[in-house]
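Researcher: Good morning. I'm working through a list of sequences from a screen, and I'd like to move beyond sequence-only analysis. For each chain I'm collecting a predicted structure so we can compare shapes side by side. This is the next one on the list. No need for commentary yet; just the structure.
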Amino acid sequence: IIAALAVSLGPLAAGLGKGYSSPAIDNLQELQNVKRGNYTHFSVNDQQVSWIASLSLLGALFGGMFGGLAMQYGRKRVLTLMSLPFSISWILTMFAKSVETMFFTAFVGGFCCAIVSTVAQVYVSEIASPDIRGFLSAIQKISGHFGMLISYLLGAYLDWRQLAMLIAMAPIMLFISVIYIPETPSFLVLRGCDEEAHRSLQWLRGPHKNVELELDTIRTNVRTTRMNLLNRISTTTGLPTATLDGATGQPLGDQRRGLRHYIEMISFEAIVANVKSVLRNARLVKPILITCGLMIFQRFTGASSFNFYAVTIFRKTFAGMNPHGAAIAVGFVQLLASMLSGLLIDTVGRIPLLIVSSIFMSLALAGFGSCVYYGETSKMLLAEGGVLSDVSMAAGQNDWIPLMCVLVFTVAFALGISPISWLLVGELFPLEYRAVGSSIATSFSYFCAFLSVKTFVDFQSFLGLHGTFWLYACISCVGLFFVIMVVPETKGRDLEEMDPRYVRTLTINR
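Model: Good morning. Structure tokens for this chain:
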């Protein structure tokens, strides 16, 4: 639990960064070229705003790809090393004197954020005992939502520089805390460091716990995984497997070190070969289509727009309500819904939750767009009659309607398509291709998020704010038909059922 809380500072820092854009963009758009101390506040236009918000997601796209390669050097080591540039990116943001600097720091911050979030989740899954693994994994997700809520809350009182300074402290705290926790036993066994793995497992389980049986189980699982990896490498690269010990899966004699180095050197080629084999395997095409399809509907239904532009959207929508207060309410509701989602997924099932989620998301998005349209039309008509102040007061009394639509959308999204999309990535892919399948789905998700955030400003220019959310409502309706016709129900199905060749090894990973 202590180790999981330590690495949860990574998702917390990621959530702080995710929530930063909304109040910071609003603050940047309000400020003109005003001198304050030795720093110049600069204004930004709509296109520059879209790049500030979306470049972090583009950086996360590349970070997600690089994170899988970086993990071969150790989960703890990667978390320690990446926390420093993560913090530096926010320090540079604090001292930024041009929008180009913010472009750069947004990309670097997103790159580091994706690596830290991915490695933190893997770390927790590898150290946790089966009875609390779900709980400790949920802590990582809750930490991210809590970080976003903190950014919304502090953003109401701090300017964008002060907020960046506070966010820079979270990766530094991660760096300090990770120093005092051990490397994961699974990684140490994979590297052949059995004594260190024993000490790590003893630290994690307690000084009086007998860890020999669990350590033997990990060795068996790692041995099987290594043999499968080497068999695939020998098939795709021509490396002979005759040099391996059939009992242990280790290279014989002096070739052990050389083969290990060779595996590290060709890791990128092995990943490329895995991707190609996945795309050629008809049995795996459907899981790819299902998971990537869900990522499209997850990202292009307005959630990313609310996360990155919440204060800006509410400022244009509300006549009397404080937009920062509304953003804080949305962040708080999102945090509560994320806590509830873990209970409902295993109780209600995946498909019913996805269907209900899609229906309520569609209704909420259509309702929000209609409220925006009604408000804009009323202002135009009454402004022509010279009673704009009266309509502002009248419209302010109805601010609770669009806020309620956003809250309903947030709950539906957090209970349904948001967690289930990621859950199905682990449930639909066979163990042999689970790593590469997760990489494909994660990278595609970040790509869709980048497009969604970047194009929000363009949609708003062409369709208006109301038309943009009507478009999101239509996409959500299409997602409903996709769920009904394509997505399978996996409630109550063990992983062994989906991947019967790895029955014994899968029980270790659960």
